[in-house]
Amino acid sequence: MSFAIRRLVQRRLYSSTPVAPTTGGSGVAAAGTPNEWVAKRNAVQAHAAQTAGMWKKIFFYVCAPGLLVAGVYIKRVEDEHHAHMEHLKHERGDEPLPEYSYMNKRQKPFPWGMNTLFFNPEVNKDMSQAA
Fold this sequence. Notes:
Elements: H1 2-15, H2 36-92, H3 127-130
C-alpha cells in the first residue's frame, strides 16, 4: 500500500512545474514580471467557461429539440403499428395462429415459469396454459 501511495506522490511531484515565488497574493513574481502560471490558469478558466457555454447551447438548441422530434415520430409509428395489429386481429377473427413444431419449444421451464422473461400476452402464446 505504501508503495502505491509513494508512487502516486512521486508522479504528482514530477508532473508539476516550478513557479517563481510570488510576493504576497498579488500574482506578481518577485522580479516584477507577471506570473505566467496565474495568467495561464486564468486563460484556461476563461476557455472552460466559453466551452461549457457552447455545449450548453448545443444541448438546448440542437439535442433537446431533436430528441423531442424523434420521440413524436416514434410515437406515431408505434401507434400505426398497434392499429395495424388490431386490424389483423379483427380480420383473422377467432382463428388461432398455426402451430408449428419448431415454435415455442420448451425442453424445461425457465426458473420463473414456462413463459420467457419478455412475455406479452397480446402477441405471445401463453406456454403455461399450453403445457
